[in-house]
Each structure stands twice: as C-alpha cells, then as structure tokens.
Write a structure and sequence with these properties.
The protein is of the alpha/beta class and 255 residues long. It has ten helices and seven strands. The chain has a single domain (3-237), classed as Rossmann fold (3-Layer(aba) Sandwich), CATH 3.40.50. The structure holds nicotinamide-adenine-dinucleotide. Nicotinamide-adenine-dinucleotide binds at residues 7-8, 10-14, 32-34, 41-43, 70-73, 85, 111, 113, 181, 183-184, 186-189.
C-alpha cells in the first residue's frame, strides 16, 4: 500500500484517479480548493504554503510514494488565475513536497495537456513562467490577452519545467513525468463548452481526433495510475499523450 498526495482531486480527472487509487488500497492526501483533506487555494502564496504544510502534517514519517499535481483552470478563467494555478501553484507544490517524495524514491506526476506543444516556447508568457517571475508572467499574459495563451502556455511551461528538472530530481530520488490529456469530459471542459467562442473551436478540434471522440476521466486516470505504479518504475521524464492521436496528427515528426 502506497501513500500519495494529490492536488485537484475533487472533480474530473483527479477524482477519477483518486477513486482508482483508493480502490487499489492506497492512502490518499487530497488538496483542493473545493473539497478534500486539505482545503487550499493554489492561486495564492498563502494557499500554496497551506497546501504543502497540510500534506506534511498528514504524510507518514517515511515519506510519500508519489505526488500528483492535477489542479488546473481552463482558458476561460481569469488570466492571472490561470498562470497562478496551472504553473506557479503546480511548481510550488512539487518543490515544496520534493523531499518527502525523495525519501521513498517516489514519483511526481504533473498534468499537462496536448495543447502544450501548440504554444511556442518563445512566447513571453512561457518564458516569464520559466523565469519564475509570477508578476512578469501575469503582465505578459495580460498583454497577450487570450485565455488560450494562458492555458496552453502554462502547460507548455510546466512541461518544460518538468523536462529541465528531470536529471536533478532523478539524482535526488524523484521520477518526474507528465501526462498530456486531450479533450476529456470533466467540469473544466463543461466550463469551456459554455463559452461560445471556445465551444466552436473545441467542437472543430474534437471532430479531427484520429481515434474519434473525447476521453472519459477514467481513461486518463488509468494511464496516470500506471505511471505512478512500480510497473512504470523506469519511466522518467516522459510526456505521455492520452489524446486519441491528436498530437501525432499535428506533430508527426516530433516526439
Ligand atoms: P476539473 O475542473 O474537474 O478539475 C480541476 C480541479 O482543480 C478541481 O478539483 C478544482 O477544484 C481544482 N482547482 C481549481 N482551482 C484550484 C485552486 N485555485 N486551488 C486548488 N485547487 C483548484 O477539471 P479536469 O479537466 O479534471 O482538470 C484536471 C487537470 O487536467 C487540469 O490540470 C487540466 O488543465 C488538465 N487537463 C484537462 C483536460 C480536459 O479536457 N478536461 C485536457 C487536458 C488537460
């Protein structure tokens, strides 16, 4: 039996993963703004501190087998919140709990998106995120003034942050990986679909998915469950696309 901490376990993909891990007999410490063991708002520095402190209080002395960083906001959320939760909140929780995961040679699994490669690395918002400057990132995003720059850009930055840290974190005893879902039927996607502009773009994109259709949260969660398990014990630095073939369709020569 393993002990995992996770953010974003209240609904959607996180809730589906929580159910699977609990059914497997694992212990879960769930952090979320809505419901969970630790209620914390990852958009603020105080909330991030409360999240890390809350997990530390509840974690076994021996450490954590893994951390799943799943909390995220859609492109229709306020721009500053997207940057704050999807990138800065995610990195703060991962860094704040790294030593607890390293104690057990465990794994940190980030939730990226198949939209991440769609936003160029040179985008000022992405660069400001990677520079660790939250105020500058928000300024750059407000200048770009588009939710998709915030959403795809935050996921691009988070994935690059992961890849850049793989070596150091592996040496410290932590496997870093990311899952990159395509369109998945969750409350986040319902929020996106309630916006006329995004609904049209998403519907058009969904129509191009090579395998057809969209994902159920459990289909993303089951891949994450594997990535957390000992069966994936040599998976390190991977970005696992679970998107019905969309990324391969858009970038056949990049992998
Ligand atoms: P969701 O809205 O069901 O889940 C997001 C979770 O994050 C919720 O439990 C929510 O309460 C929590 N959260 C939001 N803001 C928070 C904050 N400030 N502090 C703490 N917790 C907060 O949506 P989902 O689709 O299951 O999203 C899970 C992850 O999957 C996100 O990172 C999202 O970007 C990513 N993702 C989703 C899709 C999709 O199509 N649904 C596609 C690619 C990636």
């Amino acid at each position: 039996m393993a002990c995992y901490a996770m953010t974003g376990g209240a609904t959607g993909i996180g809730a589906a993963l929580r159910e699977q891990l609990v059914a497997d007999g694992h212990q879960l410490i769930s952090v979320d703004i809505k419901a969970g063991d630790v209620i914390a708002d990852l958009s603020t520095p105080e909330g991030r501190e409360a999240a890390v402190a809350g997990v530390r209080e509840r974690a076994p002395e021996a450490g954590l087998d893994g951390l799943i960083v799943c909390a995220g906001l859609p492109p229709v959320a306020p721009l500053a919140k997207i940057a704050a939760v999807n990138y800065f909140g995610a990195v703060a929780v991962a860094e704040g709990l790294k030593d607890l995961v390293a104690k057990r040679r465990g794994t940190v699994l980030l939730v990226s998106s198949n939209s991440a490669p769609m936003m160029p690395a040179e985008t000022p918002f992405v660069q400001a995120c990677l520079g660790g400057d939250e105020a500058e990132a928000i300024r750059a995003l407000e200048e770009a003034n588009h939710g998709q720059v915030g959403y795809a850009g935050s996921k691009r930055a988070l994935t690059m942050w992961m890849r850049r840290n793989v070596v150091d974190w592996a040496k410290a005893g932590v496997r870093l990986n990311a899952v990159a879902p395509g369109i998945t039927q969750t409350p986040l996607m319902q929020e996106v679909m309630s916006n006329a502009e995004y609904k049209e773009a998403m519907t058009q994109f969904a129509d191009t998915v090579p395998w057809g259709g969209t994902a159920e949260p459990a289909q993303i969660a089951s891949v994450m469950r594997f990535m957390l398990s000992e069966d994936a014990g040599f998976v390190c630095g991977a970005v696992f696309f679970v998107d019905g073939g969309s990324d391969a369709m858009l970038r056949p020569d990049s992998f």
